[in-house]
């Protein structure tokens, strides 16, 4: 899996490997040159040549080392960038409720921190492992050439390290996985606490939240500490084994020098190799541990692939980084959506204006398979112009109808038609292009107010934007902000009602065939209420408006009202008709009257 992230960067990886090997080769030559220096000293010869060679090795080694470092850095960043690109595409292409089911904190950590663990594993440590292994074998070969008995003593120590690897490395992998999962949980906790900070404070629940977040922080610490302990053990054993090897070589070598079997220059060169072995041994230990964290991260990143996507074109493979095709297809699909969204300025009326813009026939839908349907056998016709209001008690399935219209949810049975064409024959983008949607909780989309207003119609002109702002009584407020329309929209610089009006302005600028409005259940201020009412009335003259109505004024104005109860439509008609025929409607209206009077 890890290799699949590295494979597209094979040429860079190979160059970095060759450079690494060159650096290692130079490090391997140094002790031999040292032996040469010592031997030259013993015969009182000129030191010029060996010293020049040593200097040359130093300079070339430094230059190659620097270049390799930069190359590896770039490679690592390329891998992260590529993985992030794939993940974000997958998020944007996935089915809405599959994405919403996962915690935002977790989705964020996958893109931000898991990718960083991955990059090192897929670049530096793959190369480090190959390089370390080759250097190790090279050192051992050169040591065998220098003195075989001394090598046998050294290998004893190397064996200890290898044994330690086989026992410890699999454990590091398991623990790393747990440590990263604990980190993601912590992310989820912090994110949720910050998001609900007002509720937390107003309920004096800081302590409870603090305890909960800190218990996750403690768990993360505990898992990371376990990982640190094992890594420390691996490092200590490696270090101690190498120290031991040096002592053995020193003692045994000194004995062999005293018996005349070994020259001092050879012993020094051999010792330098044993010292030099430290490098590759440590490199191997380090890289194996990094590789384990990377593998755990890659596993978590790969889970993103299980998010079901809306269409095959958006099915970006995360672990098949070499599969550039899937990535380009998804990017093309997204940009095609952006192009399609631009409304045609004078869309010619289709020849048969009698065909309703939306028609739902016998639609049944559920969020999870094998659960009771949330909407059952729904029939609904939305004419090309006019206002259809959905009313009903909480949980009746009104928002679910909007989810069906926007194709966030697919029906289990029945057909939805847009302008007479079944949804199945249209792409998700083609369906959504017909709509503008104002959510109940009007979220802040990251960006400036201008971007928030224009992202569904980037071609809207300045005068159109100004006109819409004027109409929704927002112009004055926006003029007061430090950067006007270019002020970043935050949760605090705009009030809830103003944010709703911004969402409404965005919907108006999109000039949709159908405007969907999920009214806020909470009371909104008078200005916003009047703006909503006036907007619905104006838009409904030329196009369709479907509202989930929570206000009396909205209900009274509607041309057609559907009363929903437990997923079914139990009454439909005008206000007058329903007052006479439907008891639940009378109750609802009575409740709204009380609300309105307050
Ligand atoms: N993503 C989801 N997954 C599973 N069940 C869901 C999901 N969204 C809504 N439901 C369930 O569907 C039912 C209808 O919800 P829906 O939001 O459509 O009701 P509503 O009529 O709009 O209510 P309200 O007026 O309170 O917003 C509820 O029982 C809810 O628990």
UniProtKB/TrEMBL annotation:
<dbReference type="Pfam" id="PF00005">
    <property type="entry name" value="ABC_tran"/>
</dbReference>
<keyword id="KW-0547">Nucleotide-binding</keyword>
<protein>
    <submittedName>
        <fullName>ABC transporter ATP-binding protein</fullName>
    </submittedName>
</protein>
<feature type="transmembrane region" description="Helical">
    <location>
        <begin position="51"/>
        <end position="76"/>
    </location>
</feature>
<keyword id="KW-0472">Membrane</keyword>
<keyword id="KW-0812">Transmembrane</keyword>
<dbReference type="Pfam" id="PF00664">
    <property type="entry name" value="ABC_membrane"/>
</dbReference>
<dbReference type="GO" id="GO:0015421">
    <property type="term" value="F:ABC-type oligopeptide transporter activity"/>
</dbReference>
<keyword id="KW-1003">Cell membrane</keyword>
<keyword id="KW-1133">Transmembrane helix</keyword>
<feature type="transmembrane region" description="Helical">
    <location>
        <begin position="126"/>
        <end position="145"/>
    </location>
</feature>
<dbReference type="InterPro" id="IPR011527">
    <property type="entry name" value="ABC1_TM_dom"/>
</dbReference>
<keyword id="KW-0067">ATP-binding</keyword>
<dbReference type="GO" id="GO:0016887">
    <property type="term" value="F:ATP hydrolysis activity"/>
</dbReference>
<dbReference type="InterPro" id="IPR003593">
    <property type="entry name" value="AAA+_ATPase"/>
</dbReference>
<feature type="transmembrane region" description="Helical">
    <location>
        <begin position="151"/>
        <end position="169"/>
    </location>
</feature>
<dbReference type="InterPro" id="IPR003439">
    <property type="entry name" value="ABC_transporter-like_ATP-bd"/>
</dbReference>
<feature type="transmembrane region" description="Helical">
    <location>
        <begin position="232"/>
        <end position="256"/>
    </location>
</feature>
<dbReference type="GO" id="GO:0005886">
    <property type="term" value="C:plasma membrane"/>
</dbReference>
<feature type="transmembrane region" description="Helical">
    <location>
        <begin position="262"/>
        <end position="278"/>
    </location>
</feature>
<dbReference type="InterPro" id="IPR039421">
    <property type="entry name" value="Type_1_exporter"/>
</dbReference>
<comment type="similarity">
    <text>Belongs to the ABC transporter superfamily. Lipid exporter (TC 3.A.1.106) family.</text>
</comment>
<dbReference type="InterPro" id="IPR036640">
    <property type="entry name" value="ABC1_TM_sf"/>
</dbReference>
<dbReference type="InterPro" id="IPR017871">
    <property type="entry name" value="ABC_transporter-like_CS"/>
</dbReference>
<keyword id="KW-0813">Transport</keyword>
<feature type="domain" description="ABC transmembrane type-1">
    <location>
        <begin position="14"/>
        <end position="293"/>
    </location>
</feature>
<dbReference type="GO" id="GO:0005524">
    <property type="term" value="F:ATP binding"/>
</dbReference>
<dbReference type="InterPro" id="IPR027417">
    <property type="entry name" value="P-loop_NTPase"/>
</dbReference>
<feature type="domain" description="ABC transporter">
    <location>
        <begin position="358"/>
        <end position="591"/>
    </location>
</feature>
């Amino acid at each position: 899996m890890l290799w699949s992230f590295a494979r597209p960067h094979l040429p860079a990886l190979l160059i970095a490997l060759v450079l690494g090997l060159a650096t290692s080769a130079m490090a391997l030559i140094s002790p031999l040159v040292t032996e040469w220096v010592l031997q030259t000293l013993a015969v009182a010869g000129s030191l010029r040549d060996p010293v020049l060679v040593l200097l040359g090795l130093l300079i070339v080694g430094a230059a190659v080392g620097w270049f390799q470092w930069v190359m590896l850095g770039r490679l690592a960043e390329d891998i992260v960038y590529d993985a992030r690109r794939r993940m974000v595409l997958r998020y944007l292409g996935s089915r809405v409720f599959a994405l919403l089911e996962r915690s935002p904190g977790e989705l964020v950590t996958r893109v931000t921190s898991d990718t960083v663990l991955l990059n090192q594993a897929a670049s530096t440590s793959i190369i480090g492992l190959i390089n370390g292994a080759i250097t190790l074998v090279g050192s051992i070969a050169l040591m065998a050439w220098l003195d075989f008995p001394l090598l046998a003593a050294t290998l004893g120590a190397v064996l200890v390290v290898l044994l330690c690897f086989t026992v410890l490395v699999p454990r590091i992998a398991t623990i790393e996985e747990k440590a990263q999962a604990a980190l993601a949980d912590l992310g989820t906790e912090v994110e949720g606490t910050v998001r609900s900070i007002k509720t937390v404070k107003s309920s004096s629940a800081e302590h409870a939240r603090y305890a909960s977040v800190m218990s996750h922080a403690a768990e993360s610490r505990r898992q990371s500490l376990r990982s640190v302990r094992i890594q420390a053990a691996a490092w200590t054993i490696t270090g101690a084994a190498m120290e031991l090897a040096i002592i053995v070589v020193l003692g045994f070598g000194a004995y062999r020098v005293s018996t005349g079997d070994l020259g001092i220059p050879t012993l020094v060169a051999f010792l330098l190799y044993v010292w030099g072995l430290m490098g590759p041994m440590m490199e191997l230990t380090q890289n194996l541990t990094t590789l384990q964290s990377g593998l755990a991260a890659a596993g978590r990143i790969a889970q993103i692939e299980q998010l079901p996507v809306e269409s095959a074109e958006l099915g970006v493979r995360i672990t098949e980084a070499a599969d550039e095709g899937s990535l380009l297809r998804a990017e093309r699909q997204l940009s095609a959506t952006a192009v399609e969204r631009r409304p045609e300025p004078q869309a010619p009326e289709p020849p048969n204006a009698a065909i309703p813009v939306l028609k739902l026939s016998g639609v049944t839908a559920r969020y999870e398979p094998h659960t009771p349907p949330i909407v059952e056998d729904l029939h609904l016709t939305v004419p090309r112009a006019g206002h259809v209001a959905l009313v009903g008690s909480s949980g009746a399935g009104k928002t679910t109808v909007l989810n069906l219209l926007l194709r966030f949810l697919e029906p289990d049975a029945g057909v939805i038609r847009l302008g007479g064409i079944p949804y199945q024959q249209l792409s998700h983008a083609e369906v959504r292009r017909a709509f503008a949607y104002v959510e109940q909780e009007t979220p802040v989309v990251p960006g400036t107010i201008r971007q928030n207003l224009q992202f569904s119609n980037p071609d809207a002109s300045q005068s159109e934007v100004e006109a819409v702002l004027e109409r929704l009584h927002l112009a004055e407020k926006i003029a007061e902000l430090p950067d006007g329309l270019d002020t970043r929209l935050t949760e605090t610089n705009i009030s809830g009602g103003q944010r709703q009006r911004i969402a409404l302005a965005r919907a108006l600028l999109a000039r949709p065939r159908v405007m969907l409005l999920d009214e806020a259940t909470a009371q909104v201020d008078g200005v916003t209420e009047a703006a909503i009412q006036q907007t619905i009335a104006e838009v409904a003259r030329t196009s369709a408006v479907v509202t989930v109505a929570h206000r009396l004024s909205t209900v009274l104005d509607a041309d057609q009202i559907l009363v929903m109860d437990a997923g079914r439509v139990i009454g439909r008609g005008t206000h007058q008709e329903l007052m006479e025929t439907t008891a639940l409607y009378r109750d609802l209206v009575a409740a709204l009257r009380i609300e309105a009077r307050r």
